[in-house]
Automatic annotation (TrEMBL):
Pfam family, one: NAD_binding_10
InterPro entries listed in its UniProt record: ComplexI_NDUFA9_subunit, NAD(P)-bd_dom, NAD(P)-bd_dom_sf
Domain NAD(P)-binding: 10-153
Entry protein name: Complex I NDUFA9 subunit family protein
Organism (species): Dokdonella soli
Source domain of life: Bacteria
Length: 312
């Protein structure tokens, strides 16, 4: 497939900061829509990459910036909302996706790659429910779509290992809600590669790819492993669900909202899959043990801890 013009929503987040350079290497011309381009100059210096100011929730603005594009990638996602009624999740996931589909139809953009989440549409959390509702809108659209459902994503500056590393550096004892929740962490580079390959392979149209790493690990063990990687001996205390829910409620009022009741509800479902979406795309999953020790314990560890970004 020939290089094309691609518009990326959410391209300045964690996944986007890895995906945009990957797409640029394939020769694509990329427009990244951002609320504040001045804060993301590092992407704009790449050849054939433009970061432009835009309100992605404004359908007219979307329509204007999508004109002439061959594909759009929607990476927008939030893990927490300002309130607790689900309206923030609905705006970021469902309403935005609906506006994006309408804008694509208005200017004739044929292709949509949509970021979702493993277990989307299941369980009680607003996060997973709205991810599922967004998927339903994509599937019902006339676009040539591909949906990606990753487990938790790790890599340089992630919101998983680096968030816990920050907490472990200051807390000798860490109470942990849902410590037995299972994950299959997937490397951000593998996720970026999956998107890049989907763009050039027509057989990915109309497919949903579940993206997982090679290891199933419980949250408690993941946190203990992180403590070892940063050279800290810490006591991790698993909480029973009633206390875990209380911790999540209190966490909603703390700076940075480290955990919320909706996070707690999401953790009731294990983020695992029996379907290897990476393998279906010809990608060998990267083990966390191959990447994270150097990132967490390197000479520039504190810089990395300070710059992590939790959202997509």
């Amino acid at each position: 497939m020939q290089p094309q013009k691609i518009v990326v929503l959410g391209g300045t987040g964690f996944v986007g900061s890895h995906l945009v350079p990957r797409l640029q290497r394939d020769g694509h011309t990329i427009t990244v829509l951002s609320r504040n381009r001045e804060q993301h100059r590092e992407l704009g210096v790449l050849p054939d990459v433009a970061v432009v100011n835009a309100d992605v929730h404004d359908r007219a603005a979307l329509t204007r910036h999508l004109a002439g594009a061959g594909a759009v990638i929607n990476l927008v996602g939030i893990l927490n909302e300002h309130g607790s009624d689900g309206s923030g999740f609905r705006k970021a996931h469902v309403e935005l996706t609906g506006n994006l589909i309408a804008a694509c139809a208005a200017v004739g953009v044929p292709r949509l790659l949509q970021m979702s989440a493993l277990r989307a549409g299941e369980g009680e959390s607003f996060y997973l429910k709205t991810r599922g509702e967004a998927e339903a809108r994509v599937k019902a659209s006339p676009l040539a779509w591909t949906i990606f459902r990753p487990s938790v994503i790790f890599g340089d500056g992630d919101g998983l290992f680096f968030r816990f590393a920050q907490l472990l550096r200051i807390a000798p004892v860490l109470p942990l809600a849902r410590a037995g929740a299972k994950f299959t962490p997937v490397h951000v580079g593998d996720v970026a590669e999956a998107f890049a390959r989907a763009l050039i392979h027509p057989h990915t149209v109309g497919r949903v790819y579940e993206l997982t790493g090679p290891r199933v690990i419980e949250l408690g063990e993941l946190v203990r492993w992180t403590a070892r990687m940063i050279g800290k001996r810490r006591l991790i205390v698993p909480l029973p669900d009633p206390l875990g829910f209380l911790q999540a409620y209190v966490g909603e009022w703390l700076p940075g909202k480290p955990i919320s009741r909706d996070n707690f509800r999401s953790l009731k479902l294990d983020s695992v899959s029996r379907v290897d979406g990476l393998a279906a795309l010809g990608i060998v999953a990267t083990p966390m043990e191959l990447v994270m020790p150097a990132l967490l314990s390197g000479d520039d560890r504190q810089r990395r801890l300070d710059r992590f970004r939790g959202d997509y």
